[in-house]
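Example record for the data management plan.
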Amino acid sequence: MSAQSRIPGQDHAGSPDLEQTETGGPGPGVPLNNGVLLAVAVILVAANLRPAITTVGPLLDEMRTSLGASSAWAGLLTTVPVLCFAFAGLAAPALARRVGIGAAVAIALVLLAGGLVLRVASGQFTVLAGTLVGAIGIAITAVLIPVVIKASYPAKIGMMTGFYTASLQTGATLGFVLTAPLDSAFGDWRPSLASWAVLAGVALVVWLVAVLRGKLRTVEVKQPGGPGRSLMRNKLAWTITLFFGLQAFIAFVVMGWLPQVLIDAGVSRDTAGLLLGLLTVLSVPFSFVLPPLAARSGTQTGWILALGACAMAGLLGLLLAPGAIPILWTVLLGIGMSVFSVALTTIALRARGGEDTAKLSGMAQGFGYLLAAVGPFLFGFLHDVSGGWTVPFIMLIGVLVVQMGFGALAGRPRYL
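Corresponding structural encoding:
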């Protein structure tokens, strides 16, 4: 199949290296189940990929007081998940090859649920250990679900990626919004955080039912270029990785620093918090709409550049007149940051087979989140050194320009 061709009515999937064979049960490949049950399972799994992280911030002061923890401990607690996204994500494809992708996702959900319970069991070390275990589960799942979508819904990659990213963003928003009410209802931060393990347990049950009781097939993945082909020397793979990493870099900075920037510009603390919530909520509808539209296009470059232009307008507004129309700058940034869903779609579209999709997903999210982890620290460091927000925002605008460049290249209809 050429880079330009596609089957009418399908997303631009390009999956000629997937061979389907009937089996009596789940094999070592990718389980295919094109029914509603697997789609529901994917949506439930996606809803678990952010609450474990977004529920910590609103309770961090209470946790520190209860545990007698230092600021350094709090910084480590918020950094651990991002580092796990990097290193555990790189190991996810190997785990899937060893035990099968259905079992790998199930193991990841067990790790997530176990980590959520473990981190409220005792003191400072246990909280860090539980966060580490749960983040490993999140990282593995985040890498492998795009592979499931690619293999199970080759004609609907955009639509399913839209459901997946919208559910992920909804989970993030619910974690942020429900944390305080749950803390008030339980009267303590421990049950409030541990209660999210129930959602992970529900997702695990539905996932297992979908995998074990569905009409299963496996996908035998041919590895072009020979067994164990590495993507480390592939220019397109690095282009996609840098695109993904730079958009995550910007997202982490905005979510971490936007309230403080607005407060310093004269916006009230409550309003700044509401604007951050608006930024998160905006991504949900756009995550439904953008992936199917981008996947049906011959190229994703136009979408990536258009979203980048929105983000650029938002950043320039915050740089030049942050307190003038803060809601407009927030809306523009929220639209621009929806490029995350297009980045995930691009990962699925640029790989031909399941093995390459797993490798590219692991590489892009692994190295990408490692790059993104530097963002909030660098932004804050430049603020401290310069004594204002101008220098850090100029840096962020520069990062956005580079992201748009790599995104424009990643969106072209080519394959690994």
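Summary line stored alongside the record: Residues 157-186 form the longest helix (30 residues).
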